[in-house]
Amino acid sequence: MTGIEHAIGYQFKQPGLLVQAFTHRSFGVPHNERLEFLGDSILNCAVAHLLYSSFPDVPEGILSRLRANLVRQQSLFEIAEHLHLGEFLRLGDGEIKSGGRNRPSILADALESVFGAILLDSDFDHAQQVIHRLYADSIAAIDPNTPAKDSKTLLQEVLQGRHLPLPDYILVSTTGQAHEQVFTIDCVIPALSVHTTGVANSRRAAEQAAALTAHQAITTNTPKKSDKKTPQ
Questions:
Q1: Domain ends where: 82, 102, 134?
Q2: If DSSP states are collapsed to H, E and C, what string results for the chain?
Q3: Do 161 and 124 share a domain, yes or no?
Q4: Which candidate among 72, 139, 164, 194 keeps its CA 20 to 30 Å from the CA of 106?
Q5: Are residues 117 and 68 in the same domain?
Q6: What is the chain's mean pLDDT, rounded?
Q7: What's the pLDDT tens digit per position in 50-107?
Q8: Is 78 annotated as catalytic?
């Protein structure tokens, strides 16, 4: 499990907890459902704290919507996919044959289980640190001026409002080691001659960064080409 521990930035004192976190009920017992329950609660609290600290002027209602978006299954799945969690899952034969290693629900549950396992292995502070690190790119991609929706959604709505095709997101390059990759993504809107670029440590965050620059270019009527936006 050295690879996954390196990826999440935490080394387990009790490796059995990490093994349990990756054990689906189809494999046997002890499985990860109780850890998932624990991890879900930790995740909500940690993300709430991260949003509260990152956006001191944003009201409660918008913070709640932001948190709901960040802790939903799709967001967890994208992080789990970036960490290659599917490689470590312990699944029954039926789940393996039906593509369980790539199933969003299973991967999202496993990631929450990892958070629960970290809490039991150490304490809440360590679990929170891991969550903050894994969500750093997603937080950086949020536009505080339009916090209720992410940049890709905002861009899509603008284009649909003008009856234009949706943008193309093109992977330009992937560099770095397996667990420290840097993604470069182009957002291309031919109808408006807009071509922007995002660079980040996950494909999702790079797409969001490129979409943010494209949205700004369109809404300010100043199309930009090869305009790089890198979340800090």
A1: 134
A2: CHHHHHHHCCCCCCHHHHHHHCECCCCCCCCCHHHHHHHHHHHHHHHHHHHHHHCCCCCHHHHHHHHHHHHCHHHHHHHHHHCCHHHHCECCHHHHHCCHHHCHHHHHHHHHHHHHHHHHHCCHHHHHHHHHHHCHHHHHCCCCCCCCCCHHHHHHHHHHHCCCCCCEEEEEEEECCCCCCEEEEEEEEHHHCEEEEEEECCHHHHHHHHHHHHHHHHHCCCCCEEEEECCC
A3: no
A4: 139
A5: yes
A6: 87
A7: 999 999 988 888 888 889 889 988 889 889 988 989 999 999 999 898 888 988 899 9
A8: no
**pLDDT score recorded for residue 227:** 42
- Answer yes or no: is 112 within a domain: yes
| Whether 8 and 110 share a structural domain | yes
Is there a single domain that holds both residue 73 and residue 127?
yes
Whether 43 and 115 share a structural domain: yes
Total number of domains constituting the chain: 2
- Give the position of tokens 């879900």: 40
Q: Which of 81-85, 193-197, 203-207, 224-228 has the lowest mean pLDDT?
A: 224-228
Whole-number Å distance between alpha carbons of 55 and 51: 6
Is 95 an active-site residue?
no
Share of the chain above pLDDT 70, in %: 91
Domain endpoint, select from 82, 101, 134: 134
CATH number of the domain bearing residue 156: 3.30.160.20
Q: pLDDT confidence of 2, banded at 50, 70, 90?
A: low
Question: Do 169 and 204 reside in the same domain of the chain?
Answer: yes
Select which of 36, 81, 95, 112 is catalytic. Answer: 112
CA distance 25 to 2: 23
